[in-house]
Amino acid sequence: MTESTISQLQPMPDDWQRALAVVAHPDDLEYGCAAAIAAWTDAGREVSYVLATRGEAGIDTLDPARCGPLREREQRASAAVVGVSEVAFLDHADGVIEYGPALRRDIAAAIRRHRPELVITLNHRDTWGGTAWNTPDHVAVGRATLDAAGDAGNRWIFPELTEQGLQPWDGVRWVAVVGSASPTHAVDATPGLKRAVRSLLEHRTYIEALTDEDPETYARTLLTGFAEETGKRFENRPAVAFEVFPR
User: Fold this and answer.
1) Which of 25, 71, 99, 118 has the fewest beta carbons closer than 10 A?
2) C-beta of residue 202 within 8 angstroms of C-beta of residue 216
3) What are phi and psi of 18, to 5 degrees?
4) Over 50: is that where the pLDDT of 83 sits?
5) In angstroms, rounded to a whole number, what is the distance separating the alpha carbons of residues 122 and 24?
6) Apex CA 183: angle with CA 152 and CA 225, to 5°?
């Protein structure tokens, strides 16, 4: 098998109707995944978001009590741009999310509630591509989501969820990790790329605190660059890449 064959990304599975995206912070999905979500909702699929925090510790110049509600509003507006109307927050503390049973239980409950076939999360590994260090929140939520996809289907793990009326859901068929250094699949970003840029731009307060660059130029350049680089492994079509774990 040649190196070029090994490196090619396969099309994402498309025989599903419901997806649940679980990430740590507002804007996590907008940095690279939103174009795929726009394409999916265009096709009539249901996508919902669950965020572990409200991103209240994410802007140095804003007190968390002001920052959290503002970033929640930006996230809901951002989701609406790509056709997502249901956005829930688990209210874990931003910056100090702890991997463990409490986080797994909260995510398993969300999976039981939404009953998705596809679960999406963000890079759960220690680094981005072996170079930049990942944040503890991303690692904790990503790992907990991979585990909770199984927890959700086992009635004897977190039996209190069943007592609360959340019946086991063993219907998760894939967990797809965006931002992985070892992607396996991709989605054509072309139909959703403009909306992905608009979706990221809804996080304007965060972007303006992050960079002095014009926000629209920043968002368009960043997302287009990501999509085009991924497209080199996907028939030269701009794309969003995922590492897919079948279940």
Assistant:
1) 99
2) no
3) -125, 135
4) yes
5) 8
6) 120
Here the tokens at position 137 are 């929140």
β-strand 174-178 against 239-246: which pairing, if any? antiparallel
User: How many angstroms separate the CA atoms of 16 and 18, rounded?
Assistant: 6
Average pLDDT over residues 45-49: 98
* Crossing angle for the helix pair 193-201 and 215-231, to the nearest 10 degrees: 140
Residues 40, 56: Cα–Cα separation, whole Å = 29
pLDDT at 178 > cutoff 60 = yes
Q: Please give the model's pTM, rounded to 2 decimal places.
A: 0.95
Distance CA 170, CA 153 (A): 4
- Rounded alpha-carbon distances, angstroms, from residue 86 to 20, 153, 158: 10, 22, 24
Does residue 92 have a pLDDT over 70? yes
